[in-house]
Structures are given as C-alpha cells and as structure tokens.
Q: What sequence folds into this?
C-alpha cells in the first residue's frame, strides 16, 4: 500500500491522467489537458468544466463570508471558461452541508451564487443538495460557448508572441496573509477587532471575491483579437506560465519590472517581508488571464490599461526565465498550491 | 437562526428553488426541474446534470468496494441523462480525498470510473482532485445529447398513457439490507466471514453496481417510440411517480401485482419481514426508468421483457393510487431518502 503523500499531488494527477483513455466521440474536440473540455456545438464550440471547493482546504469560514464564498465558487468555474476565450451559459451547483449550518447561512451562500450568476450572465440550471458529515463542500460545473475561430488553447503559443496578463497579480495572496494574521490575533484574544484598514480593502476583496475576466473576453472579441494561447492564473503566474510553455513546447522570458502589481500589494508585501514578485509568481487565486498574442495583434491592446505585456515567447523550450531590472536572468520554478490538483 | 432540520429537506429545496431566477439565455430550453437541464445544441438538444456523493451519507466503505463505487457514481449521472431519453457523451469527475486513502485505493476508484465510461461509451474529459478533511467526496457532471423530437420531460404525460417501468424494483434496497446486516455481524465479531450466498448475488449487485438504462434509450429509438414523460427511479417508485404526476398535473393508478419484482427480492423481503411492494415503492437506488407512452405506442413495447406496464395515467390530478390484487385502492405517499435532496 502506498501513502498518497509519497506520490505527491503532481504524481497523483499524472498517474490518473495516464490511465484515462483518449476521447472517442466525434463531438469531443478536447478532453483533459486544458482549462475546460471542448465539444462541437454546431457553429460554436461548447466548453465544459468543473471545480470542487472543500472547507478547511480551499476556504476558512472563520473569515470567509458565505455570500462571498458562493460568488467565488462560481468565479472559479467561469474563469476556466474565460481561459478558453469563451463565455459561460449554464452552471450547476452541488452543495454538501453538515448540520451546523443554519437556513440563514444557506440563504447567504445562495445569495452569493445568484449574485455571481447575474454578474456573469449565467443560468443556474441544476445541482444537488446533500448532507455532509463534516463541513461544507461546493462543486460547480459550467457550460460555456466560444465561436470556433476564437477558441484559445494552452498549447498554441508561437515564437515571438507577446505574453500578456490582465489586471494585477499577487493581491489575493497578500489578502490571504492579512486575513490569516487577523485570525491569529482574534484567536489569541477574541476581544480584538479585525484591523483591516481601508488601504487594505483591495487586497481583502481580491481574496474574498475575485472576479473572472469575462470582460476581457468581450473586449478581445470587440477588438477582433484572438490570443494564440491562454490560461487563467489560479495557481500563481509561475505555475501557469510553465503550463503554457510546456504545452506549447516553447520557452519564455518575462521581465520582473513589467509584472503588474498593485500599490497595496507592494505595501503589504513589505510589511510581511515577502517579495511582491514572489507573491505574483507563486501567490495564486488572482483569477486573471495569462495569454499570448502575435506581435502585430498586440498593437490593438497596447493602450489597454487592463492588459500588460510582461514578456515574450522564445524558441528555447527548455527555458522559462525571469529577467530582473538589474539584468539578471533566473529560471522560473512552480510552487503552486498544496492540496489542489486539477485534472484539467 | 433556523436549524436546517426544522426546515426539512423538501423545505430547503423549495426555499432554494424559489430564489433561483428563470433562465435568460436563448440556449437554455429547460433549467431546474427535471432530471437534467436542457440546452439547444443545433440539430439536437444537449443535456447537463450533476450528482454529488458523500462518504457516510451515500455510501459506506466498510462494504462498498471502491471500484464499484466509481462505477456507481458514473451510473447516477448517466441515469439522469437516460431519463431525458438522451445518451451521455462527456463526464467530469471531481474527487475529494482524505489522507487515509492509499494510491492503490484511488487506482481502484478510477478503474471503476473507467469501466463505466467504457460501458456507457463516455469520454472522461476533466475534473478536480483535491484534499478533504474527512472522507471521500465524488462529484460527477455529465453532458449528453438527444434528438429534439425525442426529448422526454417529466411533465408531458397524458391521460390514458400507459405507465411503464424497466427491469425490476426493490432489489437494490434489499441488497442494502443484506450488506448492512453483514456489517453488523462483522462488527460484533470480526472473525465472521460475510454470509452472502449465491442466491443473494443479484441483490448485492443491484446495490453495489447498478446499471443506468441507456439500453432502453437505444431500444426506444430503434422502435421509433418516444415516451410522453420519463423519470429515473432513484428514490423509489412512489416518489418518482408522484413527481411525474404532479409535474404533469395528472393522476395515476398502478397495480401492485404488475410491479416487476425479482424472486430474490421476494425471498429477502420475506426474511427481513418487509413487504416487497414497500421495497419497490420506497426502497430507492434501482436506477430503472419510469415512463409513460400513448396506448397505441405501447403495442410496440408489449412483448419486451425488459419493460413492464404497471398502470395508467388518469385525469384526476389529486389522486395517485395503488390498486391491490384484492381490489383495494390506497393513495401512494412518498417517503424517499434522508439526506439526499436534488435541485433537479
């Protein structure tokens, strides 16, 4: 008998993936291996994905309001659809509940789910509600759509493509550090009130209620730009960049001074003695989009304040590097998350 | 604050359903309220559904082999697709695992999932694998397809339709009783070996490894028969019949002597001092199909040994009754399962 920990999360996923047969249906365009599965939906491609969130692993209800959690669970799935350059249409939400939850708590959770469905324009079309022996489990599956000519995979980046990222990175991670610290203070002295001043609002919001970038999907369509490759930044820039490069069989160079980082992230990183670049590279949960475009297509995006060019794709498939302002070049390694390992 | 138990499972589902907005996408043909959601997939309709299984609620690993569990989890979702008269194409499987599971245990679980994908001809296209603080969680979502003219809802039964059921009922419930009894014996004396003689094989198999009736979907297509209404029998015949009648706004009479019950079910029911009719009506987990057809269409099915006519649809929407051999008529009430409440 082999302990799961000896295999490790990557080992377990690889082991499972190797045993799964290749798709056989003509409708299946893409099975496991991208942000969402792809199926042929007449004029369009359909997108299909799922995410599971488990209490104590993915969220801590001592500081996560249930309404935000409901919103965030939907965001996870929508972000996977957006990463294929698609827009969501339907979701199902299954909930496992232990008896400690009140009716009002469930109302809060669903208020967040409904708010997300409204914000992302999704029909909530089904789900399961079941008991659970301990804690809360949320499983969201999503169905989306993308015009065939706009589908964007992870593995189609080309040499000299511009690497772009939306929004800013590392804020959700710093928000988590702040919330965890307040929790420790509160547990040491329950009379203490949380000390989350206004200059921290953005960080906490990024952690508790991230937004999937469907706005960028709309914008790319309006501009007539189709990225060559795209992935959502759920596990930190480093891990996602390595996925994109490995699957495209190419390398990349990114420039640390170009990585978009919010002022609040800089301040908090300083306070916690964390490098803001490390927070951006390995922090995770930003739910931004990392994508590549041909250099000529980038011209249409260059003035967009929500999109930042951070580097380029190179032909050296063995090297994904970070170039510092001082001119140093260091290889990028993934750290990723513990306990979260996605098959897709 | 209101305890979840005061609301009850039906109350909770009703509460959640009432707050969910009506679908707004033109692609969404049917949202919550049937076995699966329906979306417009060009020439066909697409079907989308999800199921969550939680250890200690839906299964007991002291007697459920992981391979069978993997198979059964897929069967649940496929049965929902079959209940819409559709066939499955893709599934995603998310797993939450606590550290007590070994690598070999996960291999077993996936062996069952793969076997089911092969049996039902499904592409496994994605999923999540995550840690869990306690026990095993399995969430399966499925995507299926049905020709538009063959889609079968719950709410389109017509007066004088023949009520049909596939296979036989109550066996899975009696299988559960046998397994639970053996568990008690084993717990009292761990030296005892399970006493599941061969004449019990069918009951145990029906509980541990039920089959979704995609064979019937194929057969109905071959015969050119489209049921007027259909539902899968997951919570017992009584509960499903009441759903079908309530949603069709009609009544029904079924005849106890017509309900298909296997000889092994009769024997075990006698031993456990349970009425076999009660096992069929309220036992659950049979994963057969309950459907209605126009009387003239039934002629094509009358000689089919896998399909049994058990009654008819009546115009009295206030009455769903069981007619006994002795000529008594009693109203049917649902008991259903504790702890499992589906939004769909």
A:
């Amino acid at each position: 008998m082999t302990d799961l920990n000896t295999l490790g999360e990557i080992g377990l996923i690889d082991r499972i993936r190797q045993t799964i047969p290749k798709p056989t249906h003509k409708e299946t365009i893409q099975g496991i291996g991208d942000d969402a599965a792809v199926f042929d939906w007449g004029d369009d491609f359909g997108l299909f994905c799922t995410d599971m969130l488990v209490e104590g692993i993915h969220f801590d209800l001592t500081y996560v309001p249930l309404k935000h959690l409901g919103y965030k669970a939907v965001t996870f799935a929508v972000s996977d659809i957006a990463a294929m350059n698609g827009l969501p249409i339907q979701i199902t939400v299954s909930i496992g509940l232990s008896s400690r939850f009140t009716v009002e708590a469930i109302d809060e959770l669903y208020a967040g789910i409904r708010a997300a469905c409204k914000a992302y324009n999704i029909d909530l079309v089904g789900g399961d509600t079941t008991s659970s022996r301990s804690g809360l489990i949320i499983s969201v599956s999503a169905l989306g759509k993308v015009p065939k000519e706009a589908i964007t995979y992870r593995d189609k980046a080309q040499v000299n493509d511009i690497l772009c990222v939306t929004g800013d990175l590392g804020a959700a991670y710093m928000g988590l550090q702040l919330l965890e610290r307040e929790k420790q203070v509160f547990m040491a002295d329950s009379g203490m009130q949380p000390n989350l001043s206004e200059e921290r609002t953005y960080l906490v919001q990024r952690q508790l209620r991230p937004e999937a970038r469907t706005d960028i999907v709309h914008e790319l369509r309006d501009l007539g730009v189709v990225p060559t490759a795209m992935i959502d930044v759920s596990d930190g820039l480093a891990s996602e960049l390595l996925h994109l490069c490995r699957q495209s069989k190419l390398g990349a160079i990114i420039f640390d001074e170009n990585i978009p980082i919010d002022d609040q992230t800089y301040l908090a990183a300083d306070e916690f003695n964390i490098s803001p670049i490390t927070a951006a590279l390995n922090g995770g949960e930003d739910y931004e989009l990392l994508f590549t475009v041909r250099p000529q297509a980038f011209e249409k995006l260059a003035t967009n304040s929500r999109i930042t060019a951070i580097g380029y794709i190179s032909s050296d498939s063995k090297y994904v590097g970070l170039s510092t302002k001082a001119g140093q070049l260091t290889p990028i390694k993934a750290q990723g998350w513990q306990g979260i390992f996605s098959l897709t």
Summary: Residues 336-344 of chain A have pLDDT under 50 and may be disordered. Residues 103-120 of chain A form the longest helix (18 residues). DSSP finds ten helices and 15 strands in chain A. Chain A touches chain B through 85 residues (CB under 8 Å).
